[in-house]
């Protein structure tokens, strides 16, 4: 005696008689895909709390007449509309004129600092590409300024820039006799060069590290072939090294620009709450407008304007640098 089960219970068949696969088990696949995002969720929430929430609060504060009289209950501060922005961009008034001066100082400082950091870092990375005795020690020494805590490094420079017993004046005036008298480095016009020196000193190792990593991806056969064709060192750097590092340098310059333009720790530790006029970076200027004069509405408006400027510069930079990229480089 034989029994036959219904065909649809045994196997799914299509009209042609071929077996049709059953439904795929998607829950396990969804779990595998969603698990990494679930693990990133705490960090994402923390980032939102640390960056997004203060940003939104700062934007709201920029539309309020928030002064020292409303510190205890800033939500009760009256709305001022765009008045804080008008005051900030009125370059004929004292507040706007001071902000414009600080902006121009910051632009000059950023361009010089980023350019020198990239130049020194690239030169050091190219120099250390060749194998020689002591290369590992030099690499470690070059990274010391980047590895040191910012406050410890800048405070050390504060002592070195002292007028009477600082190391800088001792070397320049007492030993090398390059100056007629000891210079004031933390006040006056020399404060700009002191700030630039500290910024370059602690920033170029990052450029060195990034460029050195990018050089590892350039095949050595290119340099060997160029040497056989009679290309010298400068021709190899111009024709092989720099074009090969184009994508690396694009990201490096943008990161250095954003870091340097927003740098607050270096001038604050170097000069204190009130930076000299020659070294009045916009980050310290906004701090003074907010926490020294107790005008948080105007300071918030300045911060929003700074954010918009950096967004525009970043967008234009990415647009210009992406035009020349080949599809394979994206």
Automatic annotation (TrEMBL):
Stretches that traverse the bilayer: 34-63, 103-128, 140-160, 192-215, 243-261, 300-320
Subcellular location: Cell membrane
InterPro entries, sorted: ABC_transporter_permease, MetI-like, MetI-like_sf
Domain ABC transmembrane type-1: 103-317
Pfam families xrefs: BPD_transp_1 (PF00528)
UniProt membrane topology term: Multi-pass membrane protein
Positions of region (Disordered): 1-25
Primary residence: membrane
Range of residues in the leader sequence: none
Top-level taxonomic group: Bacteria
Keyword terms of this UniProt record: Cell membrane, Membrane, Transmembrane, Transmembrane helix, Transport
Protein family per UniProt: Belongs to the binding-protein-dependent transport system permease family.
Name of this chain's protein: Sugar ABC transporter permease
């Amino acid at each position: 005696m034989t029994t036959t089960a219904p065909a649809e219970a045994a196997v799914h068949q299509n009209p042609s008689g071929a077996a049709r696969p059953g439904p795929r088990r998607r829950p396990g696949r969804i779990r595998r895909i969603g698990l990494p995002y679930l693990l990133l969720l705490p960090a994402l929430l923390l980032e939102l709390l640390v960056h997004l929430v203060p940003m939104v609060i700062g934007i709201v504060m920029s539309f309020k007449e928030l002064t020292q009289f409303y510190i205890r209950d800033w939500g009760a501060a009256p709305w001022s509309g765009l008045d804080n922005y008008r005051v900030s961009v009125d370059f004929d008034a004292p507040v706007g004129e001071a902000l414009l001066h600080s902006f121009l100082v910051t632009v000059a400082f950023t361009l010089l600092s980023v350019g020198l950091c990239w130049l020194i870092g690239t030169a050091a990375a190219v120099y250390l590409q060749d194998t020689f005795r002591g290369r590992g020690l030099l690499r470690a020494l070059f990274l010391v300024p980047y590895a040191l805590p910012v406050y410890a490094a800048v405070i050390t420079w504060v002592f070195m820039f002292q007028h009477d017993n600082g190391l800088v004046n001792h070397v320049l005036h007492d030993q090398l006799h390059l100056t007629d008298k000891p210079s004031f480095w933390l006040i006056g016009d020399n404060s700009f060069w002191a700030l630039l020196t500290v910024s370059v000193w602690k920033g170029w190792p990052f450029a060195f590290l990034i460029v050195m990593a990018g050089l590892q991806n350039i095949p050595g056969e290119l340099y060997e072939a160029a040497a056989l064709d009679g290309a010298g060192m400068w021709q190899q750097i111009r024709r092989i090294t720099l074009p090969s590092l184009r994508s690396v340098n694009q990201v490096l310059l943008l990161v250095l620009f954003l870091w340097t333009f927003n740098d607050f720790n270096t001038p604050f530790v170097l000069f204190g709450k009130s930076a000299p006029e020659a070294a009045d970076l916009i980050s310290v200027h906004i701090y003074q407008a907010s926490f020294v004069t107790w005008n948080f509405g105007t300071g918030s408006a300045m911060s929003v304007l700074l954010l918009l400027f950096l967004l525009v510069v970043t967008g234009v930079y990415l647009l210009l640098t992406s035009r020349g990229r080949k599809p394979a480089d994206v």
